[in-house]
Amino acid sequence: MTDLQAILDSIHAELLPRLGEGKVADYIPELAKVDPKQFGMAIATVDGNVRSVGDADIPFSIQSISKVFMLTLALGKVGEALWKRVGREPSGTAFNSIVQLEREEGIPRNPFVNAGAIAVSDVVLSGHAPREAIGELLRFVRYVADDESITIDDKVARSETQTGFRNIALANFMRAYNNLNHPVEHVLGVYFHQCALSMSCEQLARAGLYLAARGTNPITGHSVVSPKRARRINALMLTCGHYDGSGDFAYHVGLPGKSGVGGGILAVAPGIGSIAVWSPGLNKVGNSQLGAVALEMLAARTGWSVFGD
Ligand code: GLN
Fold first, then answer.
1. Ligand 1 site, residue 69, Cβ cutoff 6 A
2. Average pLDDT of the segment spanning 38-57
């Protein structure tokens, strides 16, 4: 048996001298205030064990990792019809790119770039007031994580509402192409609040378990999605979860993963477990710099890459 706690401890010890590498997201003022030297990592395995190291119990802003949970909800609502509104190809562009959206007539490349996630939020919003859609997401995340204490950080949501000019542009653009059905302010209200979900690595690792265990949370027994849907969400995370850094992440880590500009990454080892890592400093394409390094170490030491050990 691999001693996962020993592996986590060794990764933490080796990265200690490097903490603070990268640059925290400063285009969202609230995120600019985060101490860049924090580091946490947690692994929830399908046998129900959770192991962790460092600041794994400190909640942080999960940002774009929330796009995985919103995608799960949207697929539950409209199924495959979602793909009329959003593509399934890697973008090769920045997460907040505008150029591609014009060239491709308002259909975002995939559900993980900002434009795609905004379209997904529009789908989850249908039939709801914005407040209800946010409530639905919060209930869902609490359910998959089996943790009622998870909250949304209103300060972060407000901070992004005041400064999210690119997202406002993306949303207006899609509305002009009839790819948003609700008022831009309502859709972005949902989107900014989902990004402001605040979770620790331990909570996030538990929340991702359904993706590692054929759609069912093995701890609670809750069936979340079908095995086929879990497999497909993992495929999208592998190909698109790190934006224009997705190829590099697959090359180095070899696991489906989704990053957020809060410095978190959720990675899935199918059949084995779900891993969350947090280190706020980002690399040039906006993914956690040391988070990816930590996951590369983990994959190398466990042989968990989906491409073989
Ligand atoms: N809320 C952030 C934004 O919309 C999310 C981006 C990210 O985490 N990559 O810009």
1. no
2. 98
